[in-house]
Amino acid sequence: FVKIDTDGHDIEVLLGAEQVLRADAILGVSIEAQFHGPIHEYANTFPNIDRIMRERGFTLFDLEPYRYSRAALPAQFLYDLPAQTVSGQVLWAEATYFRDLGDGEYESLWSFTVTPERVLKLACLFEVFGLPDCAAELLIERGDVLGVDVRGRLLDLLAGGAPGAYAAHISRFD
């Protein structure tokens, strides 16, 4: 997993990491992306960052916006320091990308080797980033790669931990 946070030069780091991103060792990237600024293909803006990530086989899974109010009517700070505010214009966001190994065609589309280790690591990353539904889908879709019955303990852990938690959760939803 790669975390890029350079306060405005993130796209430069992303472009410099070309070989690392094209290699099949990276499962996810978190990067700051601005929503405003110059319009050219190397500007540190969300459209450019998103294009670069998608061209390398990554899919956007989360976008955490950061808002800043205007001085004409300042909003409350989100934290106890003068930074982002609870309301106001979205100026930038933390964008989180992962390889979508839950897609059965991923390896043929991106020449990526799906291994048990990568499936488990990606499932853990999904859980860490608050995406347990993505982890569950990945485990179900790639259970054959793992060589275990994921409908048992692994899905129960994602659904609360107790034996039978996953089946009970799905039953309540149905």
Can you summarize this structure?
The chain is of the alpha+beta class. It has helices at residues 10-16, 18-22, 46-55, 106-110, 116-128, 132-141, 143-146, 153-158, 165-173; strands at 2-4, 28-34, 59-68, 89-98.
Largest sheet: 4 strands, mixed
Q: Proportion of β residues? A: 15-25%
* Gross morphology: flat
Low-confidence stretches: none
Write out the strand line-up for the largest beta sheet, numbering strands in chain order. 1-2-4-3
Number of helical segments? 9
- What is the gyration radius calculated from CA atoms? 19 Å
Question: Residue share in helices?
Answer: 25-40%
What's the average pLDDT? 92
What distance separates the N and C termini?
35 Å
Coarse structural class: alpha+beta
- H/E order of the elements? EHHEHEEHHHHHH
What descriptors fit this protein?
alpha+beta, single chain, 174 residues
How would you portray this structure in words?
- With 174 residues, the protein is of the alpha+beta class.
- It has a four-stranded mixed beta sheet.
- 40% of the residues lie in helices and 17% in strands.
- The chain is built from nine helices and four strands; from the N terminus they run βααβαββαααααα.
